[in-house]
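Technical annex, item 7. During the second reporting period the consortium partners agreed on a shared format for inverse folding records so that results from different sites could be compared directly. Each record opens with the tokenized structure and is followed by the designed sequence. A conforming record, contributed by the partner at site C, is shown below for reference.
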């Protein structure tokens, strides 16, 4: 069964504002903004209901929404931990040590890639470029970027977050 979703009053105003930025007939260009808005309202992930709502809102086929949502790593199609850890493993970051960061995360958290800790606090994924190739290795936790990380500095960050 699909989870029901609709924008709350505040987000509906925001969504309508996004549409006004585009010429008539080009409203689908607001898709990324609307998906981000829906994901934020839905607790950090896009359920089927949210994607169907956005498709209906833009009057586009639901498959188009799914194609976009599943392409970009900033969208999440399932719930994740309070702290969603994304380790960039593309070549520039890998050459700078991201493989060791990923190993440290798995060891410290006791989970594998694509998993969430039993307490629901942390989830871990590998991701493609986070756009900070000259400052690698890079890790993104929720909306915060952590550049030039070492195993030690990343574990310090995780310990700080675990105490919250």
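Designed sequence (site C submission):
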């Amino acid at each position: 069964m699909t989870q029901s979703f609709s924008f709350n009053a505040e987000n509906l105003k925001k969504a309508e504002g996004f549409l006004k930025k585009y010429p008539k007939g080009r409203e689908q260009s607001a898709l990324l903004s609307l998906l981000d808005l829906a994901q934020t309202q839905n607790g950090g992930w896009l359920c089927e209901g949210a994607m169907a709502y956005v498709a209906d809102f833009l009057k586009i086929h639901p498959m188009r929404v799914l194609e976009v949502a599943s392409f970009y790593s900033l969208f999440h199609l399932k719930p994740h931990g309070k702290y969603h850890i994304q380790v960039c493993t593309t070549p520039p970051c890998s050459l700078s040590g991201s493989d060791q960061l990923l190993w440290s995360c798995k060891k410290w958290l006791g989970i594998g890639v694509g998993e969430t800790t039993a307490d629901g606090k942390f989830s871990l994924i590998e991701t493609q470029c986070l756009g900070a190739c000259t400052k690698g290795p890079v890790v993104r936790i929720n909306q915060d970027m952590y550049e030039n990380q070492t195993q030690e500095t990343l574990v310090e960050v995780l310990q700080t977050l675990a105490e919250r």
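The radius of gyration is 18 Å. The mean pLDDT is 93. All partners now use this format for quarterly exchanges.
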